[in-house]
Amino acid sequence: MFFYGPLPPLMFVSMIFFMLYGFPVAFSLGAVGLTFGIIGVVTGHFPEAFLAALPHRVFGILSNDILLAIPFFTLMGAILERAKLAEDLLEGMGKLFGSIPGGLAYAVIIVGALLGAVTGTVAASVLTMGVISLPIMLRYGYNQRLATGVIAASGTIAQLIPPSLVLVVLADQLGRSVGDLYKGALLPASVQVALFLLFVLGVSIVRPKLMPPLPKEIRGDLNLRLVAQVLIGIVPVLVLMFLVLGTIFLGLATPTESGALGVVGALLLAAANRRLTFGLLGEAMARTAQLTSMVIFILIGATVFTLVFQGMDGGRWIEHLLDQLPGGQIGFLIFVNLFIFFLAFFLDFFEIAFIVIPLLAPAAENLGIDLVWFGVLICINLQTSFMHPPFGFALFYLRSIAPKEVRTKQIYLGAIPWLGLQLTLVAIVIFSPGLVTSMLKRGPMVDPSTVQIVTPGVGGLAGGLGGGLGQPGSLGQLGQPGALGQPGALGQPAPAQPDAGGASDSSATAPGTPPPVGLGQPGGLGVPPGLQAPAPSP
Question: Does the keyword Cell membrane apply (predicted)?
Answer without folding.
Answer: yes
